[in-house]
Design goal:
319 residues, alpha+beta, Rossmann fold, six-stranded mixed β-sheet, six-stranded antiparallel β-sheet, globular
Protein backbone atom coordinates (compact mmCIF):
# COMPACT_ATOMS: atom_id res chain seq x y z
CA UNK A 1 0.00 0.00 0.00
CA UNK A 2 1.39 3.39 -1.01
CA UNK A 3 1.81 6.30 1.35
CA UNK A 4 -0.92 8.17 -0.53
CA UNK A 5 -3.35 5.32 0.03
CA UNK A 6 -2.73 5.46 3.77
CA UNK A 7 -4.33 8.90 3.83
CA UNK A 8 -7.24 7.93 1.59
CA UNK A 9 -10.64 8.22 3.22
CA UNK A 10 -13.41 5.97 1.98
CA UNK A 11 -17.09 6.32 2.77
CA UNK A 12 -19.03 3.05 2.58
CA UNK A 13 -22.74 3.74 2.11
CA UNK A 14 -25.20 1.06 3.15
CA UNK A 15 -28.93 0.81 3.72
CA UNK A 16 -31.32 -1.08 5.98
CA UNK A 17 -32.43 -4.46 4.69
CA UNK A 18 -36.10 -5.39 4.52
CA UNK A 19 -35.60 -7.45 7.68
CA UNK A 20 -34.10 -4.51 9.56
CA UNK A 21 -36.98 -2.29 8.47
CA UNK A 22 -39.46 -4.89 9.71
CA UNK A 23 -37.71 -5.09 13.07
CA UNK A 24 -37.90 -1.29 13.38
CA UNK A 25 -41.63 -1.54 12.73
CA UNK A 26 -42.44 -4.61 14.86
CA UNK A 27 -39.67 -4.35 17.51
CA UNK A 28 -38.38 -7.94 17.30
CA UNK A 29 -37.53 -10.53 14.64
CA UNK A 30 -40.11 -12.89 16.15
CA UNK A 31 -42.92 -10.37 15.78
CA UNK A 32 -41.78 -9.54 12.25
CA UNK A 33 -41.79 -13.24 11.39
CA UNK A 34 -45.28 -13.66 12.78
CA UNK A 35 -46.56 -10.77 10.66
CA UNK A 36 -44.95 -12.00 7.41
CA UNK A 37 -45.96 -15.65 7.83
CA UNK A 38 -49.51 -14.67 8.75
CA UNK A 39 -49.71 -13.10 5.28
CA UNK A 40 -48.54 -16.38 3.75
CA UNK A 41 -45.06 -15.19 2.75
CA UNK A 42 -41.80 -17.06 3.30
CA UNK A 43 -39.85 -15.32 6.06
CA UNK A 44 -36.66 -17.23 5.19
CA UNK A 45 -36.23 -14.98 2.13
CA UNK A 46 -35.89 -11.98 4.45
CA UNK A 47 -33.37 -13.81 6.64
CA UNK A 48 -31.29 -14.93 3.66
CA UNK A 49 -31.30 -11.47 2.07
CA UNK A 50 -30.25 -9.83 5.33
CA UNK A 51 -27.47 -12.37 5.88
CA UNK A 52 -26.02 -11.92 2.38
CA UNK A 53 -26.17 -8.16 2.60
CA UNK A 54 -24.54 -8.03 6.05
CA UNK A 55 -21.73 -10.31 4.89
CA UNK A 56 -21.21 -8.21 1.75
CA UNK A 57 -20.94 -5.00 3.81
CA UNK A 58 -18.45 -6.63 6.19
CA UNK A 59 -16.39 -7.97 3.27
CA UNK A 60 -16.36 -4.59 1.56
CA UNK A 61 -15.30 -2.81 4.75
CA UNK A 62 -12.44 -5.26 5.24
CA UNK A 63 -11.24 -4.82 1.65
CA UNK A 64 -11.41 -1.03 1.83
CA UNK A 65 -9.60 -0.97 5.16
CA UNK A 66 -6.47 -2.16 3.38
CA UNK A 67 -6.31 1.11 1.45
CA UNK A 68 -7.14 3.75 4.02
CA UNK A 69 -9.63 4.95 6.62
CA UNK A 70 -13.15 3.61 6.22
CA UNK A 71 -16.32 5.22 7.52
CA UNK A 72 -19.58 3.30 7.24
CA UNK A 73 -22.57 5.55 6.70
CA UNK A 74 -26.26 4.61 6.71
CA UNK A 75 -28.42 5.90 3.88
CA UNK A 76 -30.56 8.02 6.20
CA UNK A 77 -27.54 10.12 7.20
CA UNK A 78 -26.31 10.84 3.66
CA UNK A 79 -28.29 14.11 3.14
CA UNK A 80 -26.62 15.72 6.17
CA UNK A 81 -23.14 14.27 5.73
CA UNK A 82 -20.29 16.51 4.59
CA UNK A 83 -18.18 14.66 2.04
CA UNK A 84 -14.54 15.70 1.70
CA UNK A 85 -13.18 16.69 -1.71
CA UNK A 86 -10.75 13.77 -1.73
CA UNK A 87 -13.16 11.15 -0.37
CA UNK A 88 -13.82 7.98 -2.31
CA UNK A 89 -17.41 6.76 -2.02
CA UNK A 90 -18.47 3.13 -2.24
CA UNK A 91 -22.18 2.36 -2.35
CA UNK A 92 -23.34 -1.16 -1.63
CA UNK A 93 -26.97 -1.67 -2.46
CA UNK A 94 -29.41 -1.21 -5.30
CA UNK A 95 -29.48 1.38 -8.09
CA UNK A 96 -31.68 3.71 -6.06
CA UNK A 97 -29.07 3.97 -3.33
CA UNK A 98 -26.43 4.95 -5.89
CA UNK A 99 -28.66 7.66 -7.34
CA UNK A 100 -29.66 8.99 -3.94
CA UNK A 101 -26.01 9.22 -2.91
CA UNK A 102 -24.65 10.70 -6.13
CA UNK A 103 -26.74 13.87 -5.83
CA UNK A 104 -24.99 14.80 -2.57
CA UNK A 105 -21.49 14.47 -4.01
CA UNK A 106 -19.40 17.11 -5.74
CA UNK A 107 -17.51 15.02 -8.29
CA UNK A 108 -16.04 12.56 -5.78
CA UNK A 109 -15.69 9.15 -7.51
CA UNK A 110 -18.47 6.71 -6.68
CA UNK A 111 -18.10 2.94 -6.93
CA UNK A 112 -21.39 1.05 -7.17
CA UNK A 113 -21.25 -2.46 -5.69
CA UNK A 114 -23.90 -5.15 -6.16
CA UNK A 115 -24.04 -7.16 -2.90
CA UNK A 116 -26.18 -9.94 -4.36
CA UNK A 117 -25.97 -10.28 -8.18
CA UNK A 118 -28.24 -13.34 -8.19
CA UNK A 119 -31.02 -11.37 -6.55
CA UNK A 120 -30.62 -7.86 -8.00
CA UNK A 121 -29.93 -6.39 -11.39
CA UNK A 122 -28.07 -3.11 -11.30
CA UNK A 123 -27.34 -0.67 -14.12
CA UNK A 124 -25.37 1.45 -11.65
CA UNK A 125 -23.80 -1.54 -9.87
CA UNK A 126 -21.11 -2.86 -12.22
CA UNK A 127 -18.95 -4.42 -9.47
CA UNK A 128 -19.12 -7.08 -6.77
CA UNK A 129 -17.38 -6.87 -3.40
CA UNK A 130 -14.64 -9.15 -4.71
CA UNK A 131 -13.82 -6.60 -7.43
CA UNK A 132 -12.89 -3.92 -4.89
CA UNK A 133 -9.29 -5.07 -4.44
CA UNK A 134 -8.79 -4.50 -8.18
CA UNK A 135 -10.86 -1.35 -8.58
CA UNK A 136 -9.84 0.72 -5.54
CA UNK A 137 -6.07 0.92 -6.30
CA UNK A 138 -6.85 2.13 -9.83
CA UNK A 139 -9.26 4.77 -8.53
CA UNK A 140 -6.67 5.99 -6.01
CA UNK A 141 -4.11 6.33 -8.80
CA UNK A 142 -6.75 7.89 -11.10
CA UNK A 143 -6.31 5.16 -13.68
CA UNK A 144 -9.92 4.00 -13.70
CA UNK A 145 -12.42 5.27 -16.30
CA UNK A 146 -15.08 7.64 -14.99
CA UNK A 147 -18.54 8.07 -16.50
CA UNK A 148 -19.97 11.56 -16.09
CA UNK A 149 -23.62 12.00 -15.16
CA UNK A 150 -25.53 15.24 -15.70
CA UNK A 151 -27.60 16.24 -12.66
CA UNK A 152 -30.69 18.42 -12.47
CA UNK A 153 -30.86 21.32 -10.01
CA UNK A 154 -33.83 23.15 -8.54
CA UNK A 155 -32.89 26.48 -6.93
CA UNK A 156 -35.42 28.57 -5.04
CA UNK A 157 -35.40 32.35 -4.81
CA UNK A 158 -34.56 32.06 -1.11
CA UNK A 159 -31.29 30.26 -1.90
CA UNK A 160 -32.35 26.69 -1.11
CA UNK A 161 -31.53 24.06 -3.72
CA UNK A 162 -32.05 20.38 -4.43
CA UNK A 163 -30.29 18.09 -6.90
CA UNK A 164 -31.72 15.19 -8.90
CA UNK A 165 -29.84 12.30 -10.49
CA UNK A 166 -32.82 10.69 -12.26
CA UNK A 167 -35.53 13.29 -12.01
CA UNK A 168 -37.20 16.10 -10.10
CA UNK A 169 -40.88 16.29 -9.26
CA UNK A 170 -42.61 19.64 -8.79
CA UNK A 171 -46.18 19.62 -7.52
CA UNK A 172 -48.18 18.79 -4.42
CA UNK A 173 -47.47 16.15 -1.80
CA UNK A 174 -50.62 14.23 -2.56
CA UNK A 175 -50.15 14.53 -6.35
CA UNK A 176 -53.51 16.33 -6.62
CA UNK A 177 -53.92 19.45 -8.73
CA UNK A 178 -51.01 21.88 -8.50
CA UNK A 179 -51.28 25.52 -9.57
CA UNK A 180 -48.27 27.46 -10.81
CA UNK A 181 -46.86 29.72 -13.51
CA UNK A 182 -44.48 28.07 -15.98
CA UNK A 183 -41.90 30.04 -18.00
CA UNK A 184 -39.47 28.82 -20.65
CA UNK A 185 -37.60 31.34 -22.82
CA UNK A 186 -40.23 33.84 -23.99
CA UNK A 187 -43.21 31.55 -23.32
CA UNK A 188 -45.27 31.75 -20.13
CA UNK A 189 -48.36 29.89 -18.98
CA UNK A 190 -50.66 29.60 -16.00
CA UNK A 191 -51.17 25.89 -15.43
CA UNK A 192 -53.04 23.37 -13.33
CA UNK A 193 -51.73 19.81 -13.42
CA UNK A 194 -50.77 16.84 -11.28
CA UNK A 195 -47.14 17.97 -11.37
CA UNK A 196 -44.06 18.49 -13.50
CA UNK A 197 -41.36 15.87 -14.05
CA UNK A 198 -37.84 16.97 -15.01
CA UNK A 199 -35.71 14.09 -16.34
CA UNK A 200 -31.96 13.66 -16.72
CA UNK A 201 -30.23 11.35 -19.17
CA UNK A 202 -29.76 8.77 -16.42
CA UNK A 203 -33.47 8.92 -15.65
CA UNK A 204 -34.61 8.96 -19.26
CA UNK A 205 -35.30 5.22 -19.29
CA UNK A 206 -37.54 5.52 -16.22
CA UNK A 207 -40.28 8.07 -15.53
CA UNK A 208 -39.53 9.96 -18.75
CA UNK A 209 -40.01 6.84 -20.87
CA UNK A 210 -43.22 5.85 -19.10
CA UNK A 211 -44.76 9.32 -19.56
CA UNK A 212 -44.05 9.19 -23.30
CA UNK A 213 -45.42 5.66 -23.55
CA UNK A 214 -48.65 6.74 -21.86
CA UNK A 215 -49.05 9.78 -24.11
CA UNK A 216 -48.40 7.69 -27.20
CA UNK A 217 -50.98 5.12 -26.13
CA UNK A 218 -53.62 7.79 -25.55
CA UNK A 219 -52.99 9.42 -28.92
CA UNK A 220 -53.08 6.09 -30.72
CA UNK A 221 -56.38 5.15 -29.08
CA UNK A 222 -58.08 8.47 -29.75
CA UNK A 223 -56.79 9.19 -33.26
CA UNK A 224 -56.16 5.68 -34.66
CA UNK A 225 -52.68 6.85 -35.60
CA UNK A 226 -49.40 5.29 -34.58
CA UNK A 227 -47.63 8.53 -33.77
CA UNK A 228 -43.82 8.48 -33.36
CA UNK A 229 -43.99 9.63 -29.73
CA UNK A 230 -41.24 7.67 -28.02
CA UNK A 231 -37.76 8.15 -26.55
CA UNK A 232 -36.32 7.10 -29.93
CA UNK A 233 -38.34 9.67 -31.85
CA UNK A 234 -37.35 12.45 -29.48
CA UNK A 235 -33.80 11.55 -28.48
CA UNK A 236 -32.68 9.17 -31.23
CA UNK A 237 -32.56 6.10 -28.97
CA UNK A 238 -35.03 3.82 -27.22
CA UNK A 239 -32.55 3.89 -24.34
CA UNK A 240 -33.26 7.57 -23.75
CA UNK A 241 -30.53 10.18 -24.00
CA UNK A 242 -26.94 9.98 -22.80
CA UNK A 243 -26.14 10.20 -19.09
CA UNK A 244 -23.87 13.21 -19.67
CA UNK A 245 -26.15 15.04 -22.11
CA UNK A 246 -26.00 18.84 -21.57
CA UNK A 247 -29.77 19.14 -21.31
CA UNK A 248 -32.85 17.92 -19.44
CA UNK A 249 -36.46 17.32 -20.50
CA UNK A 250 -39.57 18.38 -18.65
CA UNK A 251 -43.06 16.95 -18.96
CA UNK A 252 -46.28 18.22 -17.41
CA UNK A 253 -48.51 15.48 -16.05
CA UNK A 254 -52.23 15.70 -16.79
CA UNK A 255 -52.41 19.42 -17.64
CA UNK A 256 -55.92 20.82 -17.28
CA UNK A 257 -57.02 23.66 -19.60
CA UNK A 258 -59.65 26.01 -18.22
CA UNK A 259 -60.70 29.65 -18.35
CA UNK A 260 -57.67 30.57 -16.25
CA UNK A 261 -55.15 27.85 -17.18
CA UNK A 262 -53.56 26.65 -20.43
CA UNK A 263 -52.03 23.37 -21.58
CA UNK A 264 -49.71 24.24 -24.46
CA UNK A 265 -46.30 24.43 -22.75
CA UNK A 266 -46.32 20.83 -21.51
CA UNK A 267 -43.06 19.34 -22.84
CA UNK A 268 -39.65 20.71 -23.69
CA UNK A 269 -35.90 20.77 -23.39
CA UNK A 270 -34.04 22.57 -20.62
CA UNK A 271 -30.52 23.76 -21.46
CA UNK A 272 -27.79 25.71 -19.68
CA UNK A 273 -28.92 29.05 -21.09
CA UNK A 274 -32.57 28.02 -21.22
CA UNK A 275 -33.74 27.14 -17.70
CA UNK A 276 -37.30 26.41 -16.70
CA UNK A 277 -38.84 28.83 -14.19
CA UNK A 278 -41.82 27.86 -12.07
CA UNK A 279 -43.66 30.14 -9.65
CA UNK A 280 -45.83 28.37 -7.11
CA UNK A 281 -49.47 29.33 -6.64
CA UNK A 282 -50.14 26.56 -4.09
CA UNK A 283 -51.09 27.87 -0.63
CA UNK A 284 -49.88 24.64 1.04
CA UNK A 285 -48.35 21.22 0.40
CA UNK A 286 -46.33 22.40 -2.60
CA UNK A 287 -43.09 20.40 -2.85
CA UNK A 288 -40.05 19.68 -4.98
CA UNK A 289 -38.40 16.30 -4.42
CA UNK A 290 -35.92 14.23 -6.38
CA UNK A 291 -35.39 10.60 -7.35
CA UNK A 292 -38.59 9.39 -5.75
CA UNK A 293 -37.55 10.31 -2.20
CA UNK A 294 -40.57 12.27 -0.98
CA UNK A 295 -39.19 12.65 2.54
CA UNK A 296 -36.30 14.81 1.27
CA UNK A 297 -37.99 17.85 -0.26
CA UNK A 298 -38.13 21.61 -0.62
CA UNK A 299 -41.33 23.39 0.35
CA UNK A 300 -42.80 25.08 -2.71
CA UNK A 301 -45.76 27.22 -1.68
CA UNK A 302 -47.33 30.43 -2.98
CA UNK A 303 -44.88 33.07 -4.18
CA UNK A 304 -41.80 30.85 -4.20
CA UNK A 305 -39.97 30.73 -7.53
CA UNK A 306 -37.88 27.76 -8.65
CA UNK A 307 -35.29 27.84 -11.40
CA UNK A 308 -34.78 24.37 -12.89
CA UNK A 309 -31.57 23.77 -14.80
CA UNK A 310 -28.37 21.79 -15.05
CA UNK A 311 -26.29 21.35 -11.91
CA UNK A 312 -22.92 23.07 -11.79
CA UNK A 313 -21.16 19.75 -11.15
CA UNK A 314 -21.55 16.31 -12.70
CA UNK A 315 -21.67 12.97 -10.96
CA UNK A 316 -18.64 10.71 -11.39
CA UNK A 317 -19.39 6.99 -11.62
CA UNK A 318 -16.48 4.55 -11.68
CA UNK A 319 -16.82 2.04 -14.52
Amino acid sequence: MSEGALHQKMILIKRKTRLEELVVRYNTIQQAQFYIERLGADFSHYIEEDDRYSKAVAYAAAELNAYGRVQILDREHVPNFIFGKQDMVVVIGQDGLVANTLKYLREQPLIGVNPDPLRWDGVLLPFTVKDLKLIVPDVIRRRRPIKEVTLAKAELNDGQCLYGVNDLFVGRKTHVSARYQLELSDRMEQQSSSGIIVSTGLGSTGWFKSVLAGAKGIMRSTTNQNLPLSPEAITGSEDGFHWNSPFLYFTVREPFPSQTTDAELVFGKIEERRPLRITSQMPENGVIFSDGVESDFLEFNSGVEATIGLAENKGHLVV
